Amino acid sequence: MPGEKVKNYLVLVVDIDDDIGRKAGLNTPILGREENIKALIKLGLEDPGDSDVNAILGGVKIYDELKASGKDVEIATISGDVDVESEKCALRLKEQIDFLLYLYNPDFIYLVSDGKEDEMILKYLESKNVFVWKKRVVVKQSETLESTYYLIQEFIKKTMEEYIPLILTFTGFSLILYAIFADIGWRIVVGIIGLYILSEGVGVRKLLVEKIKNKEEFEIGRVFPISVTISLFILIIGLTYSISSTHQLTTLNEFIGKFLLHFVDSMVLALLILMVGKFVDNVIHSEQGLLEIFKKYFFYLICIFITRELIITGGNYLLGEIGFITFVMYVIIYISITIILSVILFTKSSDED
User: Fold this and answer.
1) Phi and psi at residue 167, in whole multiples of 5°?
2) Which domain holds residue 319?
3) Which ranges does the record mark as transmembrane (predicted)?
């Protein structure tokens, strides 16, 4: 009819995890049919199996069909961020959508994606005065199978990236703890696993990771001064008990040996409390990565128990229960283990420098 307003159509292809940027090195939004075809070719050459290639092809097909029917249509591809649940991803998508709505002022939008995650932007489009059709492009598999496959793939990928370094590090430390401390090593390992499971169950680990990632402030002060006070109290009690248990001994060697054996556990407990306080402060207030913090404090934990074993060995030597050669061998072995561990854990490769 004469004077009737021409309806504007926009074919919007969504790559929410930014495969186009990460794999093909392209910036979005990508505007126009020719530019989108160039983008899908470049992405396809980098990763022929990427489902976003098919999503762009699907968008181009819809564009051609609308163009052939005489519609005033444009096509654009937008992308988010690899962390699809992050604020950064949401803001990138919002900025690009706002720009396209201003540029083309569409009455109708064909939203083209390769899975359910991309359709999260519908929550934003629902607030705009525009009608949206959804079009999911699926390759070969059924829609349900494709979605399930990519959910499983994404879960495995994220699990590998996040947990494999931690699992390998923890496994290595567990074996070392058992090799050095036998049965007590397993008790330490089980205790650490229990603390980790508890933190996962009550959501503490997730909260800490989110706050560290977003650089948010915690409503908690420094824990270390409190742990220093508790440790000093334990040391005083341990010192008093050790002296009262050995004051009747006559020879110097016997006195020192018995004193060390009585005092060592109090000293270790005080050091552990100090370490836990410092560990909590580092997790909350430090900008270091969690894996680096865990590595450092696992090493400190081993050093504390190696020190305990050396003191017990020294006490037994002074009491005449082991010979000098045996004592020296223990010292050499424990010091060697400490040096090797420090080299393995804290020597950075040239790639990291």
Assistant:
1) -65, -45
2) 203-346
3) 163-182, 188-208, 220-243, 255-276, 297-318, 324-346
